[in-house]
Amino acid sequence: MHAQWPHLLRRGSLALIAAVAVLVSGATMVLPAQATSTTGGVLLDLYGGLHPFGNASVNTSGAPYFGWDIARAIDVLPDGSGGWTLDGWGGIHNWGNASPIDTPDYQPGHDIARALAVLPDGHSGYLLDAYGGVHAFGGANAPTFPLSFGWSGWDIARGIAIATDGTGMAIGGWVMDGFGGVHAFGSPPTTSGAPTYYGGRDVWQKLHVTSSGQFYALGRWGLLSDAGLAPDVSSYPDWGAWNAARDVVLFSPPSGAATQPASIAAQREFAAAVAPSGGVILDLFGNLHPFGGYPLDSAGAPSWPGWDIARGLALLPDGSGGWTLDGWGGIHGWGAATGLNHAALWPGWDVARGFALLPDQHSGYVLDAFGGLHAFGPNAPVFTPPAYWGGQDIARGLDVVTDASGTATGGWVLDRSGGLHPFGAVPALADPAASYPGHDVWQKIHLSLDAQHLYAVGRYGVVSAPGMSPTWSGYLDWGGWNATRDVVVANPFDGSGQEAPVSAAARAAFTATYSVAGVIAKPGCGASGWVPPAGKWIVISLECQELSAYQNGQLLEDMLVTTGRPALPTQRGHTHVLNKNHPFLMVSPWPRGSQYYYNPSWVQYVTWIWPNGTGIHDAYWEPDSALGPGSTLGPYASHGCIHVTLPMAQWIYYWADVGIPVDVV
Predict the structure, then answer these.
(1) DSSP 8-state symbol, 394
(2) Do residues 420 and 445 make contact, with C-beta atoms less than 8 angstroms apart?
(3) Residue-by-residue DSSP string for 527-592
(4) Residue that terminates a domain, selected from 201, 224, 258
(5) Domain holding 387: CATH number?
(6) Which contiguous run of DSSP H or E holds residue 128?
(7) Distances from the Cα of 315 to the Cαs of 180, 318, 358, 578, in angstroms?
(8) CA angle 350, 353, 359 (to 5 degrees)
(9) Is residue 614 domain-shared with residue 508, that is, in the same domain?
């Protein structure tokens, strides 16, 4: 199977890679003719194997097969009746009806030759070495040109194309570097269609030009850049994630649109190689924060100021756009990612936790808090959830893999404690995060762009990315405020290898999410040494502003709370769960004008514990960071109730049965 580009998706269908024009002054001149009696083309692999495609008829008799990675380039007679293969030492091997050619620069044992261009006479032309040296051979039709690329000692030259006059004499040409830069020499004509330039990324391998003056280039993993040509690419071969292609020659490419012939796996590898540095952080309000120099176009991205509703993020690999998931299950496209805008699945109910989009950008999955998988689009088959926690807010992250056609074959669900739950058919990859049973620690899971690593996003902006080394410069967090909702890394391997550099406050808050042992293990919390009863039990410490939930002697959840202010303290003592309501409209028992009066306020997931109206519930007006010790003296202190985060209010609501014991100490 092949992994999709999970949260860094290709733009559109990644049709033949976008091109830019190269304009060079000069008179009208003749370019090398391509075949007119056949279609398709022929691809060279690293061992010398020749693979015709698109109904091309090619006479490959006598073609060399080396059996090791030394084949570097080919040129083919216009009618497909023969051609030449260049090896890395500079040897030129004729096959079919092509005439023998003496190499101008043969260096046995030194892999230095990179590209070959044979002129119409069939015996003269040029050999390009790795440093940009252009070596003429064959006589008068191949004059020597003054060159000055400045690449001495740098293996970066990759492709060469030649223009000739009406007599077949070379009058100039172009050398392409591995980044996609095209450098003219001599007096070539005006051309267009140079491959996309990726500075610092050695991804382009060969350059060719058609008789109509358009470049096409071969990238690593067999990807084509052809400036809008539409060759017959049926049966086009590639080797997925193995970079085995070395050159391609197209016959009679007509003009028009074309589909990228390389497989999803090959496209994924190319995208990983050219992905920009850094990544993007999504905060709770939907704001986007690029880091590591990531070139993000966030035009039209949604934000919800003051409302914790943003839940997930996916990006186009070049930074030109992406998608944001909200808590109701709505998917919002922005930037150049406008092809998908998914309506909310659960309007008014914050239950969406993660999502994964497929390469077609119209299919994918939404994960709900209970572990349910909700498929949409033509390439997203229905899977049975690998784990389902009915009524409990446990599921956190989702990513998927696809086959060569872009159809999902399986994936992973991450639970809040770090448990990884695979479904369908997935590759064997290392778990991305440590598991902390009973603790709400992790928020999202992603598959790296090269599909070799899983990484997890924790609370407070902590990222666990074993085996990866992204660029983290400019990475930010919000200290002890858990404001991070997702982090997507672009290029997984262009950084220093360090982990995400979160602040000391964020690291301490993250550690506290799993290192606590509950209030009965903490001196000074009022319940030190107590033994949990059989079954379920809640203990709330007013001194520590902490709630611990136990079941059969085991701590299941431990959370910070805010209880009553000094003038309206939360009642202490032994009680039990009386009733539950969701939602519930809180109405002030104090008259307007009283210092304790509050406007009617809807709260979620109320678990009542005292007959006087004391309950455990969320408080949308209180930031998560305000909970905990000292909060009863702050602006969010309650009127006697126990404030918890919305996820914890929901968890308690579904876990705590009516009648279970509660101790407030």
Answers:
(1) -
(2) yes
(3) -TT--PPSSEEEEEETTTTEEEEEETTEEEEEEE-B-B-TTSPPPPEEEE--EEESSEEE--SSPT
(4) 258
(5) 2.120.10
(6) strand 125-129
(7) 24, 8, 12, 47
(8) 130
(9) no
- Give the Cα separation of 300 and 81 in Å (integer): 55
Q: Which domain holds residue 361?
A: 273-514
Tens-place pLDDT, residues 352-377: 999 999 988 899 999 999 999 999 99
Q: Is residue 263 part of a domain?
A: no
Asked if residue 37 has pLDDT above 60, the reply is no
Number of folded domains that form the chain: 3
Q: Please indicate, yes or no, if residue 349 is contained in any of the structural domains.
A: yes
Domain stops at, among 458, 484, 514: 514
Dump pLDDT digits (tens) for 149-203: 889 999 999 999 999 999 999 999 999 999 999 999 999 998 888 999 988 889 9
562 has pLDDT over 80: yes
Does residue 621 have a pLDDT over 70?
A: yes
β-pairing, 642-644 vs 614-618, is: parallel
Residue 158 and residue 288 in one domain: no
Identify residue 494 by its one-letter amino acid code: D
How far is residue 238 from each of residues 44, 109, 222, 452, 624, measured CA to CA in Å?
10, 28, 6, 19, 51
Residues 105, 109, 110, 112, CA torsion sign: positive
Has residue 266 been placed in a domain? no
**510 phi and psi angles, rounded to 5 deg:** -65, -45
Q: What is the CATH number of the domain that holds 633?
A: 2.40.440.10
